[in-house]
Design goal:
The protein has 192 residues and is an alpha/beta fold. The chain contains eight helices and seven strands; from the N terminus they run E-H-H-E-H-E-H-E-H-E-E-E-H-H-H. The longest helix has 11 residues. The radius of gyration is 18 Å and the shape is globular. The two termini are 32 Å apart.
Length: 192
């Protein structure tokens, strides 16, 4: 079951490159598991390690505390490519709770929402301000659908209402249905 998401205040990690695809987020050679645990170690693996598995000294992802940098600010068309669900799993297991970009691939966004990772699409000006302040603090208020950075006015974003509800309640689609099982069984009993 996903962790509840109502409001998050965090520092950002900025990866400004456009068209970061799901194979860059988690290379295909790590797609040998059906569990989520441990995939954070493979997140952006080829950007973080050399061919021998040694950490790259200049890799931004190796120089931060994932518990303090929970918001990824990414370039346009983030998570394009294949529809692998492992991509949001890897980002979540690494420590991210939200991805902010000017464009996020639809399939990735759907997979992210189903797994507790919030995709936030913002306008170019907001994105430019965030990208210019790596490590800056932002607050994402899911109840109000607002992103707040520094002294700037809040920026509104949209999200599917059902996905928003599931994130706020800390349930996935199946969990939401199971919570309503008694009402469903009652309805079926009355209809029979």
């Amino acid at each position: 079951m996903p962790e509840r998401f109502t409001q998050l205040t965090s520092r950002t990690l900025v990866l400004p490159q456009a068209n970061i695809d799901t194979d860059q987020i988690i290379p295909a050679r790590f797609l040998t598991t059906t569990t989520r645990e441990g995939l954070g170690a493979a997140a952006f693996y080829d950007w973080r390690y050399d061919a021998n598995g040694k950490p790259l000294a200049d890799a931004p992802l190796n120089a931060l505390d994932p518990l303090d940098h929970r918001v990824l600010v990414a370039g346009d068309n983030f998570a394009c490519g294949s529809s692998r669900e492992h991509a949001p799993w890897a980002l979540l297991d690494y420590g991210f709770r939200a991805v902010v970009s000017t464009g996020i691939a639809d399939i990735f966004a759907s997979n992210a929402l189903k797994n507790g990772l919030l995709p936030v699409v913002v306008d170019s000006a907001t994105h430019a301000r965030l990208a210019a302040d790596p490590g800056g603090r932002v607050t994402i208020d899911l109840e109000r659908c607002e992103l707040i950075a520094g002294n700037e006015p809040p920026v509104s974003f949209t999200i599917d209402p059902f996905a928003r509800r599931c994130l706020i309640e800390g349930v996935d689609t199946l969990g939401w249905l199971l919570e309503r099982l008694p009402a469903i069984q009652d309805f079926e009993a009355r209809a029979a």
